[in-house]
Structures are given as C-alpha cells and as structure tokens.
C-alpha cells in the first residue's frame, strides 16, 4: 500500500519532458515534489500562472502570489502571469498537456466525480469541470476507498458527475489502473505488498486483470 | 485624458443600492477589493446579487457581506471555505449558482466583450448541463452559455492612473480585468494611484475605458488563506 | 458648401466631454484636429490604441505606432495599448460612446454602406461592420454626392449594406441630417450659401424639411 | 523551463508544406513576421490558405506570398492596398473570404481559447449574414460565428525569451497575441531574444505555452504604409 506521498511519486513517473501540466488540490499538488530534475515541465495554476515554483521560504511569502489551492508559492524562471480567462483559454483550448486531479469517484467508463461536497452540500467545482472537458490527458490521484471503506472505483458514479469518459489512468494506494475503451478498470501495477484479492474486494466496477501484474518498483512497503 | 478619480471608497460605492448586481474581483482572498467591500459593509445595503469566484472566509472578503446578510444570491465557482454561507444556504436564506471556474471567467469576459452567448465543453455530462442547449461541433458536444454583466464591478489593482488604466501584480490579477470590463460602473481600487502619463502604455492590463471610478485604498491587509513554506 | 475640413470641424461640435470616440478613415480622421481643448475625450484606434495623439514630428516617427488608416501617429498621456480582440471588445461591448465613419451611401432608414469598393470589387470591410453593429452613436461624414453627381442619401442603398438602421446623423458638404424613427432624412442645418433646392435636388431618399432651417454658423462660404 | 529556441527563420518554417493553413500576424505592415515571410518565399510552397487582417502591399508583407502565387485562399478583413491580389482575384486564381475585423479577431481568439462558436452582432443585415445562423438575445439579433485555427501561426514580437514568452510594442501587437494562441505550431520571431527569467512575468503579453518555436530575426525593415507628420 502506498502513502499519499508515494502515490504522488508514482504519478510523477508519467510526466514527459516538455509538458505543460495542471495539478489539482490534494495529492496532485504533492506531485510537484517528485518531478525529476532532468525534465523540463511547466506547472500551470488556473488562477493565472504558468511556472509554479516550490513553496516560498517564510521570508519570501507574497500574498499576491498563490496557487489554485490558495497556498503561497514561488515562480520559476521564465514564468508568466495572466488573468483567469486566459488561464482557462489554455485549458479549454488544448494547450495544457496533462491534468492530475483528485476525485471522489471514477466510474468504469472513465466518468469522474470531483465536486467539493461537504455533509451532502455541493460547495464548488472550481476549475475541475473545465479540465475534465479539455484535451489534457487526465490522471486521477486518490485513495482506493472512502473513509467508510466503500469503493471509489465504481460501476457508475454515485456522486454527481463532473465529466464523462475523460479519465485516462487512476493512481491509488493499491495500484495503477487504465480505463479500457470498452469500459473497465485495467490493473496495470499493484502497490508493494498488495494482493490481487484486496484490489478485487475493494473495487466495485469491472476490474480487468490480465496476465502477471507487476508490483511497483522503488517503493518500500508501508 | 478623462479623469476618473474619486475621493475614497465611500464616494465610489455611493450609488450601490438594495438589489444591485455586483461583480467582485479576486481569487480566494487574493486580489480582492478590500476597501470597496468595507465601504459596502458600512452602507449595509440588502438583497445584493454577488458574482465572485469564491465567497471569501467568514470574517474577510465577500464573507463580510454574507455575515451582514447583504447577499440574496451568490454566483461563484467554489464556496468551500465559508461556514456562514453554509448556514444561510441550508436555512434557505441564500440562493447559490455554481459555475465552473473557466465558464465563469469566460461568461464575464463575454459580458465585457459584447458576446451574448458562446459554446463551451465544460459541464457536458454533468448536472450543470441540465436545461442548457447542447450542440455538436466537429464531433464534440458543447453547452451554450450566456454572458454575465453587472450594475457595478469592484476590482482591485496594484497601480492605476487617473485615466483609469490598471496594472495588476502576481496572481492578484485573476478575475479583476474581466470584471472591470463587464461592469456598467466599474470601481477600481489601487495601492498606488499616479497621474495619467506615468504608466507605460504597453504594460496596461486594464485600459481606462473600462473604469468609471478609481481611488487609492489604504492599509491593505492582504490576508493569506493558506501559508505554505519551504524549509 | 463645406470643404472636407469644414465637415470635420462641424462634426467636432457634436463631441461631448468624457467621450470615447472611434474615428474612421478619411474625413473622420480630420475631426481630431477640431476637438476643442477644454473637452477631455479619448480617441480609439481599433488596431489597438486608446489615446491617439497628433501626427508625430518627422523626427519622432515610429513604425510600431500607426492608426487604423496605417498612418504614423503619436500617443497622448494616459493612453493604453492592447490587441485587436480587446479593441473590438471595447466596440462590441458598448464601451465606445461615438463612432464617426465615412460612407458610400446612407438610406433613409439609417442603413449604411461603407465597404471599400474599387472598380466593382469589394476590397474590404475593416472594422466598420463591428462599429455599425455596436451601441456607439454613429455619425456619418461624407460628401453629399458621388463623383458622377448621383446622390448618396438614398431611399435604399445600392451598394451592399454594412449595417441596418444604425446611422444617427449625417454630415455632408451641404448640410446636417438626422434619421427620423419612421424613416427619412431630417434636415437640421444647411451649409453656408446652400439653398434648400440644391439639397432637394441632390437627395434621393425622403427629405424632411420642417420650418426654418438655420445656416451653420462660424464657416466662411467656400 | 522548456526551451523553444530554433536557429533561424528557415529552421522555424521547415515543415510548412503545400496546402498548409497559416495565421499571419500584423495590421497593414505594422508588426508583421517579416523574417518568417521571407523564409517562406525562399521555400516557395504552394496552395497556402493565409489568414491575415490585410494582404500587405505588392512588394512587402503578405504581398510577397501573393506575388509568388503561393496563396490559394486569403481570409482577411481588408485587402485594399494590394494590386497583385486584385489581378489574381479577377483572374479567378485566388479565393477570398472577407470577415469584419472584429469578428476576425474574435474568431481567432475563440480558436485559441477552445470556444467552437459564439454570437456577435457584426454583419447583421449585410450580405455577410447570408447562410449564417441568426439568433435573438435580449431583443437584439446576432450571428453565429465559428472559431478559426491554423496549422501554423507566424507572429512577430518585440522581445521574447527562450521559454516562448512574448512582449509586443506599440500597435505592432494587434493580431499577434490572438494568432499565437490559435496556431497548432506557433512560430514567433522577435527583435530581441533573451534567456528565460529576464522578462518580468507581470508584463508578458503572450505566455510561452502558446509558442512552439522562437528565433531572433535580423534587419527588420518595418516599412511604413502612410507616413504622416505634424509640422
């Protein structure tokens, strides 16, 4: 089983040189810490920045510079600032190559639910709806199950759907999954120490396990 | 050059009345019209429709207007950080319209640009598409969305001149330039107000034509929602 | 009869303090020379400038600073530069208060033809179509007749129409006309030395002359 | 930061081929991609579709491509200053699509912004409305217009950095930022190319994400169409 940091670390391996990437709030934000130094990639913040840098030192905090999670950040060299319409022109216009988002649930045909819901009340969508409707390759980072143990990989989403047939891959604490064109979660890798039966038991939608499923390399078992 | 300078925030918001429709700039608490909001709280008008990406927090930003129960309807993309909103909403005292952030930005941009409606992919397949016109272009589905305009826009910039030209700093730009263009009367507050001619015309983010009133605010708090640091 | 400069001078009297104005090519461009100093107005150039100044001195010519007629210009204090989409957002969005345009013809119900046409070939529309469709108060500056003597104030436009029911007032070398809501050119003023009969003879559409028509003041007869 | 620098204009236009669809920045002769056009003339590709506000003059700008008979179709708002265009058009050798300038700008902006279609008032009542969908919003009529995108966009800026960020000067900005966003491959030429990090992020007009290739041009002529002076 992977920690949240390890999920982020695993996702970072999907990143290719030269990509423009949008990272959502939560586990996706952690991905930035694991991007290999030799890759030139640019992180977008949909409130209006290309070129997110690390969190600032406490002496360099700037209230006029925050990311989409309203966290203080810094900028890398070559970054640019713009308004929110321009930020979403980049997303909607197909200029962002990859989006890494959290989710409440994903269905076996690639639908995603990621509204902000608290005690049954929808509290927002933010920029997720635009990202899931864009041409960006959509990776989902989430824990495999809800806190009550119910599965998040569903036959159909129970929560309101944010986007349809848009998820490309899912990264959970138990494994890595792709969405098959005909529907179904195809298991690609399992987390260290995780047995196939556990994944079967904790997945509601159609799970496809073909051949030997490799264990992720490079992680210590939690 | 036309002079847009007014005395202060109180003077600038003088004709905002019960039932006005307002655009309020900012993302979270970053780049919000602090002085304009304070002046509004002082006037205590009622029944406002407020269009803002977020609802502020309980004791800052748009949250202050919520606390004073001045808002009838809120149009936003994300209101997760405001408890006051939740209470009023659950009690049925507040209307809420949630819009995807990119659609919200584009609808406001359309309002300023005289585009009454446009098609966007965001929301297809979700409950936000209900009741909206869907059309296929080049094999893909899109929703028809309408422009958003308002009686007043309250925006915050870093520098401005008496002609109404505005320059923003960092990510405090966000929704401010879009809203400036979509307000019938746009009220800009700035940290530094300079005479017309002192700003480089190449670097203006909001041309003065969109701004009807401008004033220099004082004592900006610029509260930060989430302070995150590197060791 | 007025010269082109005098038509421009007469139109300048329509300008009010605090207006944002777009001046078309030809006679409209000349209007800038006659705006009274005590009025604060801002001239827009739809290629991307608010705050057109006078033509530059020959030592100050800048190839990166031209107006919509591709003429070298200067900027006044407080001007701003922007792209062409923003320029037309200002026009379409109702932010420009007044547009002063040339025209091939105007019809009695306020339709305007102002395509660029040369030897029967339409060579362009430029920004005129957007201006005539906007909320800007539309003033037309033109000679009363074509070179062959045929009238430009028409019952219906013979040239292709650029905009319908959009003209507010017309300023020619013979007089000033408003468009009546029910259709018709209402003569408001006549140029110095111009008799009503001349205007009647040279106007094709419905001409409305009610009461005494004052002669324009402040011009020497040409 | 991703490095977009290429050697020169010839390298930048290497894969523009017969039949390519091109966006070409500039207004008249102001802010046109001089070096890119020259490199294209050198390649002598045929059957291009060129989208540009104007057609240049006979011996400069887009006019050079016309002269070499490289253009099959021209999409523009105004072609009044080009005799070569007229001859080819009358001979039936060239297609022309005239679009109101504001609609042209907005259609290109829509292409970059992922908006497949929008409504605009420009053209209502004119022959340009023929065959187009007309719809009423709030008591007024509007035309439906589609986005414009292209295989390549050739744009010209004043300064740029290796990350592809661009800053324009004066009215040479015009269509360039819109076209930069609407090209599948956008080629930017600049008068000064600096390393990433030297430009103020607040003052970037075209964020580098829209630019795939950038190079520093040399010997810009910047021809002026109409020299007008005050005494």
From TrEMBL, chains A, C:
Pfam families (alphabetical): CoA_trans
InterPro entries cross-referenced by the UniProt entry: 3-oxoacid_CoA-transf_B (IPR012791), CoA_trans_fam_I (IPR004165), CoA_transf_AS (IPR004164), NagB/RpiA_transferase-like (IPR037171)
UniProt keyword tRNA-binding present: no
Keywords: Transferase
Superkingdom, natural source: Bacteria
Listed Gene3D superfamilies: Glutaconate Coenzyme A-transferase
Membership in a protein family: Belongs to the 3-oxoacid CoA-transferase subunit B family.
PANTHER family assigned to the protein according to its UniProt record, in alphabetical order: KETOACID-COENZYME A TRANSFERASE (PTHR13707), SUCCINYL-COA:3-KETOACID COENZYME A TRANSFERASE SUBUNIT B-RELATED (PTHR13707:SF57)
Name assigned to this protein: 3-oxoacid CoA-transferase subunit B
From TrEMBL, chains B, D:
Keywords: Transferase
Gene Ontology terms for molecular function: transferase activity
Annotated transmembrane regions: none
Pfam families, alphabetized: CoA_trans (PF01144)
Family: Belongs to the 3-oxoacid CoA-transferase subunit A family.
The protein, known as: CoA transferase subunit A
Gene source species: Cyclobacterium jeungdonense
Lineage: Bacteria, Pseudomonadati, Bacteroidota, Cytophagia, Cytophagales
């Amino acid at each position: 089983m992977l920690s949240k940091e390890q999920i982020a670390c695993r996702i970072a391996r999907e990143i290719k040189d030269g990509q423009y990437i949008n990272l959502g709030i939560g586990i996706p934000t952690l991905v930035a810490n694991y991007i290999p130094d030799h890759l030139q990639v640019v992180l977008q913040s949909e409130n209006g920045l290309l070129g997110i840098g690390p969190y600032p030192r406490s002496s360099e905090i700037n209230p006029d510079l925050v990311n989409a999670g309203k966290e203080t950040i810094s900028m890398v060299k070559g970054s640019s600032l713009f308004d929110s319409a321009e930020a979403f022109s980049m997303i909607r216009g197909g200029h962002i190559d990859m989006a890494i988002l959290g989710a409440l649930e994903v269905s076996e045909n690639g639908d995603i639910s990621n509204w902000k819901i608290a005690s049954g009340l929808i509290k927002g969508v933010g920029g997720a709806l635009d990202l899931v409707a864009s041409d960006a390759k959509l990776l989902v980072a989430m824990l495999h199950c809800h806190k009550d143990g119910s599965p998040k990989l569903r036959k159909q989403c129970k929560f309101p759907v944010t986007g349809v047939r848009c998820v490309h891959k899912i990264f959970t604490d138990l494994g890595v999954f792709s969405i098959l064109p005909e529907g179904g979660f195809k298991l690609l890798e399992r987390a260290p120490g995780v047995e196939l039966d556990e994944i079967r038991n904790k997945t509601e939608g159609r799970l496809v396990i073909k051949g030997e499923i490799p264990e992720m390399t490079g992680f210590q078992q939690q | 050059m036309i002079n847009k300078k007014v005395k202060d925030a109180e003077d600038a918001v003088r004709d905002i009345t019960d039932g006005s429709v307002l655009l309020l700039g900012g993302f979270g608490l970053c780049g919000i019209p602090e002085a304009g909001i304070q002046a509004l709280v002082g006037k205590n008008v009622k029944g406002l429709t407020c269009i803002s990406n977020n609802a502020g927090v309980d004791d800052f930003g748009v949250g202050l207007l919520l606390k004073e129960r001045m808002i009838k309807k809120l149009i936003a993309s994300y209101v997760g950080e405001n408890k006051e909103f939740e209470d009023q909403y659950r009690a049925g005292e507040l209307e809420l319209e949630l819009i995807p952030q990119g659609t919200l930005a584009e609808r406001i941009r359309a309002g300023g640009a005289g585009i009454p409606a446009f098609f966007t992919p965001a929301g297809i397949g979700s409950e936000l598409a209900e009741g909206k016109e869907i059309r296929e272009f080049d094999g893909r589905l899109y929703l028809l969305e309408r422009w958003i305009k308002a009686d007043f826009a309250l925006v915050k910039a870093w520098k401005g001149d008496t002609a109404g030209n505005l320059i923003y700093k960092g990510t405090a730009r966000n929704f401010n330039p879009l809203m400036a263009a979509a307000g019938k009367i746009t009220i800009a507050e700035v940290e530094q107000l300079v005479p017309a001619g002192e700003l480089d015309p190449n670097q203006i983010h909001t041309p003065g034509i969109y701004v009807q009133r401008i004033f220099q605010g004082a004592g900006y708090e610029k509260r930060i929602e989430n302070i995150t640091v590197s060791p």
